[in-house]
Design brief:
462 residues; alpha/beta; FAD/NAD(P)-binding domain; Enolase-like, domain 1; 7-stranded mixed β-sheet; 5-stranded parallel β-sheet; 13 helices; binds flavin-adenine dinucleotide
């Protein structure tokens, strides 16, 4: 038995960041992790492996679509799937080992095994019971299931199975047009699979700015992805190594089906909090196993905190990390805080989609007077040079004060560009503050400045 100031359960981005920051602030910290490697969903079967596959298939797309246009001639590269998988695994291993190194460097103890909380101040790992002044639940999430759809991780897969298919399917049905479905759908479409996305709603990427989503939908369709919108999946049936997805159209109730080599179920994730013993400790639970916390991430049980995918809010690695940092500060007697109004969201397709703050739909619903500054990448020299001029930057600002309320980008490097707007929003900047900031030429970021200019007297290159 060992004694700690803090025991964190779960070593995903929420848990490992919390632990490292606790150690930096002088607390003795242990982390319970049941997987063989650190880094949680994100590093092992989420953000990192998916971005590795998006990266290699993006280059493949470039070879096929744009190389000749740039005067690069020659034989087409062929895909070696096992090498691509090995590259993905190398990227994952490098990152998970990196966290192990950081644990050693910061003297964070890894308590290997699955943990539970038998009583306040105690954490059980295997047969051992450890003591902790405070406990942080950072157990993350798992894929949500869908009625009538049985996942076997071979023919009918979750994102975890989709990252490690035995071979590239000729056809794939993706159930759910959210971020994970569209990213993985793009990967397999670029690898030559016929990909059909079946979505219950009439719009892809629910919650993202409507304008952006419309453009994105068009671009993905042009890239070869097919969409069945407004369709409620009724179930799947596997026969002879293929799966048939049956769905009912919301508009008229008619039924139809599609058969494919692989079906990816990407209908969201749910918190993973089973088996921790939370209810018995007086921790208040929300629907779907989500943990209720107060403004300081404390649950209804004193000394038990929760962060990341296990609590409400967007299921994103950087949101979990920020909450981990905030809890560490709070446990060290400081003031931890997360600004939920400025959490960016990114889709890592080509082009990328990124957003922060409010959408036009939200502002309309609120009845807030706002203005829109929009600049198309068509007016950006750098974007034209890389054949990615179809998107735009859109900044939403308060009509009277000019304060930036939100930004939505579809275009090259959107996932990086969004951060200058995040910083501006954190400082309460106006669109004019951005417009008056010198941006290097020729960069994609000039499009952000031009959108800010468009909130005032007008963009120059549009
Ligand atoms: C395919 C995919 C792609 C994604 N891409 C992105 C992206 O690009 N950007 C982004 O921001 N987010 C992305 N996400 C979401 C991101 O992975 C999660 O939001 C993030 O990992 C949540 O972090 P967390 O620390 O809350 O939990 P997790 O990362 O889920 O980690 C929780 C850890 O706790 C461990 N654990 C659970 N219960 C116990 C227990 N009782 N005892 C011991 N250990 C336990 C688990 O084994 C796990 O390792 C993606 C997710 C998926 C599935």
């Amino acid at each position: 038995m060992a004694s700690f100031d803090v025991i964190v359960i779960g070593a995903g981005p929420g848990g490992y960041v919390c632990a490292i920051h606790c150690a930096q602030l002088g607390l003795k910290v242990g982390v319970v992790e049941g997987r063989d490697t650190l880094g949680g969903t994100c590093l092992n079967v989420g953000c990192i492996p998916s971005k590795a596959l998006l990266n290699s298939t993006h280059h493949l797309h470039e070879v096929h679509e744009n190389f000749e246009k740039m005067g690069l001639m020659g034989a087409n590269p062929t895909v070696d799937w096992s090498k691509m998988q090995a590259y993905k695994q190398d990227v994952v291993d490098g990152n998970t080992k990196g966290i192990e190194f950081l644990f050693k460097k910061n003297k964070v103890t890894w308590l290997k095994g699955w943990g539970s909380i038998p009583e306040a101040g105690k954490v059980k790992v295997g047969d051992e019971i450890h003591e902790a002044k405070n406990i942080v639940i950072a157990t993350g999430s798992v894929p949500a299931s869908l009625k009538g759809v049985e996942v076997d991780e071979k023919t009918v897969v979750t994102s975890t199975g989709a990252l490690a298919l035995e071979k590239i399917p000729e056809s794939m049905v993706v159930i759910g047009a959210g971020v994970i479905g569209l990213e993985m759908g793009s990967v397999y479409s670029r690898l030559g699979a016929k990909v059909t996305v079946v979505e219950y709603l009439d719009k892809i990427l629910p919650g993202i700015d409507g304008d952006t989503v419309k453009t994105f939908h068009k671009i993905l369709s042009k890239q070869g992805l097919e969409f069945v919108m407004g369709a409620a999946v009724q179930g799947t049936e596997v026969k002879d190594g293929k799966a048939t997805v049956t769905y009912k159209l919301n508009k008229d109730g008619s039924e139809a089906s599609i058969t494919a080599d692989t079906v990816l179920v990407a209908t969201g994730r749910k918190p993973y909090t089973e088996g921790l013993g939370l209810e018995a400790l007086g921790v208040e639970m929300l629907p779907r196993g989500m943990v209720k916390v107060d403004d300081h991430f404390q649950t209804a049980a004193k000394g038990i905190y929760a962060i990341g995918d296990a609590i409400p809010g967007p299921m994103l690695a950087h949101k979990a990390e920020d909450e981990g940092m905030a809890v560490a500060e709070i446990l060290a007697g400081k003031h931890g805080h997360v600004n939920y109004g400025v959490i960016p969201g990114v889709v890592y397709t080509t082009p990328e989609v990124a957003s922060v703050g409010q959408t036009e739909e939200m502002l309309k619903e609120e009845g807030r007077a706002y203005k829109v500054g929009k600049f198309p990448f068509m007016g950006n020299a750098r974007a034209k040079a890389v054949f990615q001029a179809e998107g735009f930057v859109k900044i939403l600002a308060d009509k009277e004060t000019d304060r930036i309320l939100g930004c939505h980008i579809i275009g090259p490097g959107a996932g990086d560009l969004i951060h200058e707007v995040c910083v501006a929003m954190e400082f309460g900047a106006s669109a004019q503050d951005l417009a008056l900031t010198c941006h290097a030429h020729p960069t994609y970021s000039e499009a952000v400045r031009e959108a800010a200019l468009a909130c005032g007297d007008g963009a120059i290159h549009a």
